[in-house]
């Protein structure tokens, strides 16, 4: 039986976050969502990444509660949507998310996008939730260096996580270096570039050597770069395949050849023009 990946990232406050999780973006069918999350947890996943805008927090909570896995062993992330940003609004949005999830606390709560004039106050509200022990760790999503710099000037606690679009076509090295310098762990969303990378000859050739798919090679690349990665899928085979990456290791040369695929090409929106 193939070994499932169980790596963790220690965040700035000592909390351990699973390095591989399930993203649930675009999971819109309630039954299918509960099934996919339940299957993932049953097969060793311990981190689930949702958001208010995904409209599946209720289903996420249901799958978590019925999983049979103790709540303390799971790592649940959600995010405040753009229309709910600002200090008081964020506190209200968090309460609504927590109610939908049916949980007592979240492991991580993120600002979804840096809304001009609001994202600093939004993060101040996230700090308050942390102080009140309603969340175990603080973070942001889609923040460039200049956004983080503005937050760091005002923050009592630096964000512990920045979730950004990141894959071999968009390696984001300067932003990763800044985060690393400030003790901010990086989570990769769209880690497979929405499937655009799956026919890439470099990845196919590397995969052939290890008997692995291009998707598994990409996920392994993220993990060996000390990134947290949240591939999304509702297909049981894919969910399982994405986690079967513990039994091989990419060489330095292979890592460099994947780094060299960078084109600074996004599949999603640039946070500066959102």
TrEMBL record:
Q: Which Pfam families match?
A: Aldo_ket_red
- Record keyword Iron present: no
* NADP-dependent oxidoreductase domain residues: 26-262
The active site consists of 54
Q: Which chain positions carry the site (Lowers pKa of active site Tyr)? A: 79
Which of this chain's residues are annotated to bind substrate?
A: 112
Enumerate the UniProt keywords alphabetically: NADP, Oxidoreductase
Gene3D superfamilies to which the protein is assigned, alphabetical:
NADP-dependent oxidoreductase domain
One MF term from GO for this chain?
A: oxidoreductase activity, acting on the CH-OH group of donors, NAD or NADP as acceptor
State the similarity comment. Belongs to the aldo/keto reductase family.
Q: What is this protein called?
A: Aldo/keto reductase
Q: Which organism is it from?
A: Sporosarcina psychrophila (Bacillus psychrophilus)
């Amino acid at each position: 039986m193939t070994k499932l990946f169980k790596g963790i990232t220690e965040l700035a406050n000592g909390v351990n976050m699973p390095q591989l999780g399930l993203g649930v973006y675009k999971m819109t069918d309630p039954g299918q969502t509960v099934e996919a999350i339940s299957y993932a947890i049953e097969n060793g996943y311990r981190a689930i990444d949702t958001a208010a805008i995904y409209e599946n927090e209720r289903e996420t909570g249901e799958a978590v509660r019925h999983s049979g896995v103790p709540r303390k062993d799971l790592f649940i992330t959600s995010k405040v949507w753009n229309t709910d940003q600002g200090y008081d609004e964020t506190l209200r949005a968090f309460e609504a998310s927590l109610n939908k999830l049916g949980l007592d606390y979240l492991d991580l709560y993120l600002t979804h996008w840096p809304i001009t004039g609001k994202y600093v106050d939004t993060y101040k509200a996230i700090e308050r939730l942390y102080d009140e022990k309603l969340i175990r760790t603080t973070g942001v999503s889609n923040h460039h260096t200049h956004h983080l710099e503005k937050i760091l000037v005002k923050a009592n606690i630096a964000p512990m996580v920045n979730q950004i679009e990141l894959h071999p076509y968009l390696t984001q090295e300067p932003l990763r270096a800044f985060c690393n310098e400030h003790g901010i762990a990086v989570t990769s969303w769209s880690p497979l570039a929405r499937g655009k990378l799956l026919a890439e000859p470099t990845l196919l050739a590397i995969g052939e050597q290890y008997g692995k798919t291009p998707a598994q090679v990409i996920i392994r690349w993220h993990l060996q770069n000390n990134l947290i990665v949240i591939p999304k899928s509702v297909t049981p085979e894919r969910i399982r395949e994405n986690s079967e990456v513990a039994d091989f290791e990419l060489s330095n040369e292979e890592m460099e050849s994947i780094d060299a695929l960078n084109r600074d090409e996004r599949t999603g929106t640039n946070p500066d023009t959102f």
